[in-house]
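Quiz preparation item.
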């Protein structure tokens, strides 16, 4: 039989070199030894909770190539045990292991082979998904194989199974396997059983799609539209030859539509007999909101109209979800006739990423944008400077990226971290994001969280103190000095270049965590005391140092407004006694949201809702979820993110006059691979997208969970990682 080999006995031996270091558990190694380790053999009882042996193997041994756990005592390889460890080439599993958790080896892109021992009873969802170099899988025994357990293995060539009885699998277990290139080796006489078994039948022929026929529009859309009306009549078959017709001014959306159809639709066996369908894109000036759209499905095709091109694009994103159906395959067979009317509740829906603590390679940063745009996010906020790095090229000051874009270590992770974005890359990012109707907002922190800049230019701080780049999280008490003109010269030059790169009307100025006791540095600074006298401040202690911060911000705000037409943004702090009208403040501190909102109302300012108790997506979603070791991070489950009220109970006047939008924040102290950005973001970013888009009276937690399932299945099918511990 084609692609089928028979064997009575399968044995694969993977041997680690004798030079591999043998230890009982990870606590026997010092931090530097963990960072330097390339080959390890563990022989003791392995821990799985907190700062466990597995967490240390995953996060602290960044160079680890080979791991031998065959002699260790461990019945469970936990969820995410080796998640996105790109250096890992081979691993021997414990002889007594019974379970491999979900995403345990997700995106281990150097792993070449794996042998699953006889003791194993369960392989979790997406356990080996996206292991692109994995060539050979040996399965001893009959473990149950989860959804997408071996999905997207582009390098796979051989699957060996020793059992006469096919291990339990599902249709998605081997999603994306090219059966023409992959050999399935089973015991002699067992072929027929494998041919008929779910999941395994993929190796013999293309399984019929029997579970994703007609889309149910009420169960697949996130965020939920304002109004969905299913109408009577014949369904629209998607298995047709499609033509896209777009009004003038929608060239970009036409290209997006054609790409969407190519990605989703199955290849037609006989195009001449399939019939035709039309996807029509146009404008409707009668719509009241710039992001509003209508979507109509008839048996002849789909029509999407928006007040602007942005609305048309969001209609396409909704159509994409309708075509996906329940998520078990790339495309369903048909969509019922329907009419959708939709527009957003808030006009800024933002995700913030932090390349400072852990650098995000440029192509990975670009790739994040289409995924967030699927769910109608329209702003990406780049935290480009902090104590740990300066990540944006400034041509006036090339020393910033030459001297402050690399370091070794982030808390206990002694990994070298380096990189920065050129101005050409940022212009490319801006242009790319615009295709998805996403604006890019840069952030330059001030006056705190500026150690990277101070490291290069000590004259920026009080006393011209030389300080090293920070390699730990937390707050530094080294601030920009408002009493020195060089501070304003420096910031002016930086913002001049940023204004030329980023067309967004907004620039974020930071402002967080620069209060007491950090302001002590201004108390003892002769330049700051001289400035106090100039401003008529009579106190010499720190009680009114906040007025120096106000002075610094007012000068920068004036520059941004008058010279560059930019609106400043800030992280709200109680040290801000006044918020300048027209500025945007971010409510981020856990427990201080009401005070921030009241301050915004009192100062006639706009406010972005991103309170830590709902929107800090770098926090773990459940006990034992990544990141497992932290500095006291609270757990923020999915439901808590979904429960955020953008108006915070302040009423319609507040929502109309002061509410700016909703944001999720992804600080990267504990996000050490690009894949983990997605893991920390989703599915909570899906909850926040609905918070920011859908009217409150339309939202329901139970209904959201029902609609979430096909979204997550589709993400797994496309190789997008996310937390399953919600």
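Solution:
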């Amino acid at each position: 039989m084609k692609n089928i080999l028979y064997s009575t006995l399968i044995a694969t031996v993977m041997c680690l070199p004798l030079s591999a270091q043998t230890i009982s558990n990870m606590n026997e190694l010092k931090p530097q030894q963990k960072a330097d380790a390339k080959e390890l053999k563990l022989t003791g009882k392995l821990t799985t909770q907190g700062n466990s042996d597995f967490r240390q193997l995953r996060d602290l041994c960044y160079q680890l190539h080979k791991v031998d756990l065959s002699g260790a005592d461990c019945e469970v390889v936990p969820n995410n045990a080796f998640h996105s460890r790109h250096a890992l080439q081979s691993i021997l599993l414990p002889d007594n292991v019974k379970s491999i958790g979900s995403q345990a080896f997700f995106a281990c892109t150097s792993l070449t082979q794996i042998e699953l021992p006889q003791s194993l009873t369960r392989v979790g969802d997406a356990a080996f998904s996206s292991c692109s170099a994995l060539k050979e899988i040996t399965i001893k025994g009959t473990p149950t194989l989860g959804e997408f357990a071996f999905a997207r293995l582009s390098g796979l060539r051989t699957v060996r199974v020793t059992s006469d009885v096919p291990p339990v699998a599902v249709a998605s277990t081997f999603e994306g396997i090219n059966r023409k290139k992959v050999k399935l080796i089973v015991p002699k006489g067992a072929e027929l059983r494998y041919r008929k078994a779910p999941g395994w039948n993929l190796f013999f022929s293309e399984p019929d799609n029997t579970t994703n026929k007609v889309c149910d529009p009420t169960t697949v859309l996130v965020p939920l539209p304002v109004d969905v009306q299913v109408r009577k009549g014949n369904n629209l078959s998607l298995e047709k030859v499609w033509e896209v017709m777009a009004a003038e001014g929608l060239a970009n959306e036409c290209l997006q539509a054609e790409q969407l159809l190519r990605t989703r639709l199955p290849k037609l066996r006989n195009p001449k007999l399939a019939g035709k369908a039309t996807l029509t894109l146009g404008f409707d000036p009668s719509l009241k909101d710039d992001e509003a759209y209508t979507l109509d499905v008839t048996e002849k095709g789909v029509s999407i109209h928006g007040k602007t091109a942005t609305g048309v694009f969001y209609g396409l994103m909704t159509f994409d979800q309708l075509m996906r159906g329940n998520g078990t395959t790339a495309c369903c067979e048909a969509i019922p006739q329907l009419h959708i009317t939709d527009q957003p509740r808030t006009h800024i829906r933002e995700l913030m990423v932090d390349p400072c603590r852990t650098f995000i390679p440029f192509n990975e940063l670009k790739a994040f944008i289409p995924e967030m745009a699927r769910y109608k996010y329209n702003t990406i906020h780049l935290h480009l400077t902090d104590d740990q790095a300066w990540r944006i090229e400034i041509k006036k000051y090339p020393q910033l990226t030459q001297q402050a874009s690399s370091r070794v270590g982030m808390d206990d992770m002694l990994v070298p971290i380096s990189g920065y974005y050129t101005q050409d890359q940022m212009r490319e990012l801006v242009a790319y994001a615009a295709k998805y109707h996403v604006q890019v907002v840069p952030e330059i922190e001030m006056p705190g969280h500026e150690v990277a800049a101070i490291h290069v230019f000590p004259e920026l701080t009080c006393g011209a103190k030389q300080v090293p780049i920070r390699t730990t999280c937390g707050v530094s008490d080294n601030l920009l000095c408002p009493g020195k003109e060089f501070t304003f010269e420096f910031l002016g030059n930086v913002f001049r270049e940023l204004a030329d790169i980023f067309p967004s009307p907004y620039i974020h100025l930071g402002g967080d965590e620069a209060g007491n006791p950090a302001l002590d540095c201004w108390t003892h600074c002769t330049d700051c005391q001289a400035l106090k006298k100039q401003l008529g401040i009579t106190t010499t202690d720190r009680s009114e140092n906040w007025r120096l911060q106000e002075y610094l911000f007012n000068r920068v705000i004036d520059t941004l407004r008058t010279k560059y037409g930019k609106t400043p943004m800030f992280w709200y702090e109680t040290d801000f006694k006044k918020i300048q009208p027209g500025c945007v403040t971010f409510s981020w501190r856990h427990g201080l949201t009401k005070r921030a909102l009241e301050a915004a109302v009192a100062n006639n300012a706009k406010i972005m809702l991103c309170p830590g108790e709902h929107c800090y997506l770098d926090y773990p979603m459940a006990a034992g979820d990544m990141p497992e070791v932290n500095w006291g991070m609270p757990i923020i489950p999915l439901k808590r993110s979904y429960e955020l009220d953008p108006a915070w109970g302040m009423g319609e006047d507040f929502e109309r006059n002061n509410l700016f939008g909703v944001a999720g924040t992804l600080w990267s102290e504990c996000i050490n691979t690009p894949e983990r950005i997605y893991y920390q973001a989703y599915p909570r970013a899906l909850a926040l997208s609905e918070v920011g888009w859908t009217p409150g009276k339309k939202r329901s937690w139970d209904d959201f969970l029902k609609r979430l399932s096909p979204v997550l299945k589709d993400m797994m099918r496309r190789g997008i990682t996310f937390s399953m511990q919600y």
